[in-house]
Design a protein that fits this description.
By secondary structure, the protein is α+β, with helices and mostly antiparallel strands. It contains six helices and nine strands; from the N terminus they run H-E-H-E-E-H-E-H-E-E-H-E-E-E-H. The chain has helices spanning 4-24, 39-46, 84-87, 94-107, 123-129, 155-159; strands at residues 28-31, 60-65, 71-79, 89-93, 111-115, 119-122, 131-132, 144-148, 153-154. Helix 4 (94-107) crosses helix 5 (123-129). The longest helix has 21 residues, at 4-24. The protein starts with a helix and ends in a 7-residue tail after the last helix.
């Protein structure tokens, strides 16, 4: 069983990698959500007595200029983990999905989940292909969905190939 600190370190590394990949693919991208907060404030949000979507805000905001001159803005929630290597499934907390839906509704900007295999999916796709996952005695213990990794698209298909951008 891994510790919270270990899981957090892996998650933060993946967030930075996704941020870098977006930038290399030509997007203007910045950290967003809890990644901008101090450990003290994140702890307050974890222990807040009211259920709030602040706890599951996307990690990254990214934008690029379209050929029309208008901006295209998206939010990205980076999800680390490698159980997909064995199971063929990704997992995501139900609260993160619900918050992505709410965030997308509020902002009118799409929210994408980027996994450690560099696959990308939207909440709608997860809701449509997922199933409730069993509690395994590790992690946060919150409800989550399992969904097939093949339901995702490659990172480059949505954001461009980071290796091809000068």
């Amino acid at each position: 069983m891994t510790t919270f600190a270990t899981r957090l370190a892996v998650a933060e590394r993946h967030e930075r990698d996704v941020l870098d990949a977006l930038r290399c693919a030509g997007w203007d991208a910045e950290m967003f959500g809890q990644g901008q907060l101090t450990d003290v404030m994140r702890n307050h949000l974890r222990n807040f007595t009211v259920v709030t979507p602040l706890r599951w805000m996307p990690d990254i905001i990214a934008a690029r200029t379209l050929s029309s001159g208008r901006s295209h803005v998206v939010f990205v929630d980076a999800k680390a983990g490698d159980k997909w290597r064995v199971t063929g499934n990704h997992d995501i907390e139900t609260a993160a999905l619900e918050t992505a839906d709410t965030w997308q509704s509020w902002t009118k900007c799409p929210v994408y989940f980027v996994f450690s295999d560099w696959s990308v999916v939207t909440g709608d796709r997860i809701w449509g292909t997922g199933r409730v996952g069993p509690h395994l005695g590790n992690g946060s213990g919150t409800p989550y969905l399992l969904f097939p990794a093949i339901a995702c698209l490659p990172f480059a298909a949505l954001f461009g190939d980071p290796a091809m951008t000068p």
